[in-house]
From TrEMBL:
It comes from the Bacteria. It comes from Cryomorpha ignava. InterPro entries: KH_dom-like_a/b, OsmC/Ohr_fam, OsmC/Ohrsf, OsmC_Ohr_Peroxiredoxin. This is OsmC family protein.
Length: 144
């Protein structure tokens, strides 16, 4: 793997507080709006705040999948939710926390400690979490 990568994304204003985002080589376009908590915001579409939270969540999952595979951790299911917290800090809004709640189903209860270590290592190794100043918290549940 090379040491440097580029991910190009474009956004074209559509109307009001709405734009259409796309990236070369990707079929899906995403409608992005100002969230309804702000003036003239629109409900029912992805906002930058959703995308920010989703980037932390999806990076955590893909990092977990890679580390679990490398560590030969067999699991039956992985599910995770994320709650991105936006607050006003010193008169400016910012994403102050992302709370991850992961549930991992394993067949071998003797691998519970290993699974917990891999989840923690995944959160620590997530490149998005390591690139932001937002505090990322992980709560995990392992079931067998």
């Amino acid at each position: 793997m090379e040491d440097k990568h580029s991910y190009k994304v474009s956004l074209k204003w559509d109307e009001g507080r709405k734009g259409i985002m796309e990236a070369p080589g990707l079929e899906q376009k995403i409608t992005v709006v100002t969230p309804p908590e702000f003036d003239n915001g629109i409900a029912g579409f992805w906002s930058p705040e959703h995308l920010y939270t989703a980037s932390v969540l999806s990076c955590f999952m893909t990092t977990f999948l890679a580390i679990a595979e490398y560590s030969k951790l067999e699991f039956q299911d992985f599910d995770c939710t994320a709650d991105g917290i936006m607050e006003k800090v010193e008169k400016r809004f910012q994403m102050t926390e992302v709370n991850l709640k992961a549930t991992l189903k394993i067949s071998d209860p003797d691998k519970k400690d290993k699974a917990e270590r891999i989840l923690e290592k995944s959160e620590a190794a997530c490149l998005i979490s390591n690139s932001i100043k937002t505090k990322v918290n992980l709560e995990s549940t392992i079931v067998s």
